[in-house]
C-alpha cells in the first residue's frame, strides 16, 4: 500500500494474517512480542496506520479493525501464505518476480517446529554457492525468524553489507558461533556481532 513505511506494511500484514487465522485482532502486546519491539513503538505505528485510514481502534482490548482494502483470502483452510523476499535487510525487499507468496500447511510447522507460520518468511536463493548444503540457485528457503536456539548444522541467514548471506553453523559456544560460508571458509563470529535474521527450516526446490 502506498504511503506506508516498510515496518507499517509489515505490521498491517501481521494484523491481517492474525485476524484471518484467529478470528480476532491481535493485542498491542502480541504485536510487540512478534516484532521484538516496545509497546510504545507499536502504539506509534498504530496511530500512523489510523491516520492513513488503514485501521481503526479504540481503548478496548482487541479493538483493531481493518478499514482499508482487505486481502481476499482464497487459499484453502489450513494453508498459510508466507511472504517471499529477495533480501531481508530489515525485511523491506519483497521478491519482484511472479511468486510473491508461498503456501504451506500450517499444521506441519506447528507440530514439527512448534512455530506459528507468522514467524516464517521465504527467501529466494540467487546463485549456487550453497549447493554443498543442498540449496541451489532459484530455490526458496523457508526461514524462521527469531529462532529460540541455534545448533550445529543449522543454516543461518545473516545480513552482511546490506545483503542476505547463508552460512552453516559448524559449532556453537556460549558467546560466539563458528560459521562456514559458501566458499568453505570457517570464521569465528561473536554472537553480539552477528546480524541474524533467521534459521532455514525448509527448502522448496526450483522447478
Write up this protein.
- The chain has 207 residues and is an alpha+beta fold.
- It folds into two domains: 6-66, Winged helix-like DNA-binding domain superfamily/Winged helix DNA-binding domain (Arc Repressor Mutant, subunit A, Orthogonal Bundle); 79-204, Umud Fragment, subunit A (Ribbon).
- It is built from four helices and eleven strands, in the order αααββββαβββββββ.
- The chain has a nine-stranded mixed beta sheet. Strands 1-2 form a two-stranded antiparallel sheet.
- Helix 1 packs across helix 3 (39-51) and helix 2 packs across helix 3.
- The radius of gyration is 18 Å and the shape is elongated.
- 22% of the residues are buried.
**Strand count, sense and closure of the main sheet?**
9 strands, mixed
Output the strand order for the largest sheet: 4-3-5-6-11-7-8-9-10
The global form is: elongated
Strand content: 25-35%
What CATH architecture of the largest domain do you see?
Ribbon
The number of domains is 2
Number of strands: 11
User: Which regions contain 5 or more consecutive residues with pLDDT less than 50?
Assistant: 89-99
**What is CATH's topology name of the largest domain?**
Umud Fragment, subunit A
CATH superfamily of the largest domain: Umud Fragment, subunit A
CATH class group of the largest domain: Mainly Beta
Helix content: 10-25%
**How confident overall, as mean pLDDT?**
76
Number of discrete helical segments:
4
Radius of gyration: 18 Å
Order of helices and strands: HHHEEEEHEEEEEEE
Report the span from N to C terminus: 31 Å
Q: Structural class, from secondary structure content?
A: alpha+beta
Amino acid at each position: 500500500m502506498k504511503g506506508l513505511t516498510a515496518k507499517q506494511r509489515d505490521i498491517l500484514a501481521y494484523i491481517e494474517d492474525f485476524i484471518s487465522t484467529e478470528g480476532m485482532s491481535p493485542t498491542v502486546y502480541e504485536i510487540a512480542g512478534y516484532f521484538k519491539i516496545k509497546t510504545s513503538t507499536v502504539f506509534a505505528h498504530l496511530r500512523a496506520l489510523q491516520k492513513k485510514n488503514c485501521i481503526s481502534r479504540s481503548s478496548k482490548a482487541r479493538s483493531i479493525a481493518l478499514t482499508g482494502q482487505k486481502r481476499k483470502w482464497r487459499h484453502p483452510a489450513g494453508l498459510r501464505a508466507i511472504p517471499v523476499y529477495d533480501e531481508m535487510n530489515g525485511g523491506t525487499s519483497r521478491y519482484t518476480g511472479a511468486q510473491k507468496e508461498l503456501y504451506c500447511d500450517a499444521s506441519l510447522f506447528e507440530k514439527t517446529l512448534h512455530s506459528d507460520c507468522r514467524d516464517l518468511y521465504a527467501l529466494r536463493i540467487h546463485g549456487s554457492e550453497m549447493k554443498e548444503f543442498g540449496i541451489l540457485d532459484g530455490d526458496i528457503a523457508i526461514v524462521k525468524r527469531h529462532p529460540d536456539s541455534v545448533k550445529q548444522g543449522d543454516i543461518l541467514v545473516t545480513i552482511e553489507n546490506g545483503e542476505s548471506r547463508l552460512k552453516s553453523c559448524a559449532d556453537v559456544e556460549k558467546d560466539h558461533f563458528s560459521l562456514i560460508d559458501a566458499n568453505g571458509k570457517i570464521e569465528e563470529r561473536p554472537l553480539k556481532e552477528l546480524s541474524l535474521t533467521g534459521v532455514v527450516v525448509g527448502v522448496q526446490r526450483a522447478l
